């Protein structure tokens, strides 16, 4: 990964890296504006938008007919930055935007192994939240606070051997500090390796 990147890994599972201030406040506001100008899907408890390829939550697959087209022009430069900085080896081509209102979360999961490549990157907008990791074999637990405008990269063990989740709650106490959540949006970047 590019040595100019600021990274931290405190309390993250092996293979996970946090990139604080990966985007600027101006970029954050622009992403939120573009997302809110697009149509949010209400198929889940939290609202989502899919770009590049649609992910089928029921089939747990990127189905053969799932290609939506290239990433929108306002999103493509961030995918390009992820490749240029070495966070991704190849250009990510699938993005899911997740919106979490206070009290909403995402249950423990490993991102689809046959569908997506070995790097998963989630960029946080607007609010912090806690992300919890659990090692599948041992049940070991690690929790970190994801800060707005940061990116978290999951590779290797963090990608395959640990689940990740965002507990559905209205505030988080991490390292003894309680912080109320606000509306949070994440942009999760992946490279599709198999469809159908
Ligand atoms: O909101 C996040 O940061 C995580 C999203 C996530 O885990 C996913 O879309 O698979
Ligand atoms: Fe995930």
UniProtKB/TrEMBL annotation:
Which superkingdom does the taxonomy of this entry point to?
Bacteria
Q: Which residues form the Fe2OG dioxygenase domain?
A: 91-193
- What is the name of this protein? DNA repair protein
Instruction: Please provide the Gene Ontology terms (biological process) for this protein.
Output: demethylation
In its UniProt record, a GO molecular function of this protein is: demethylase activity
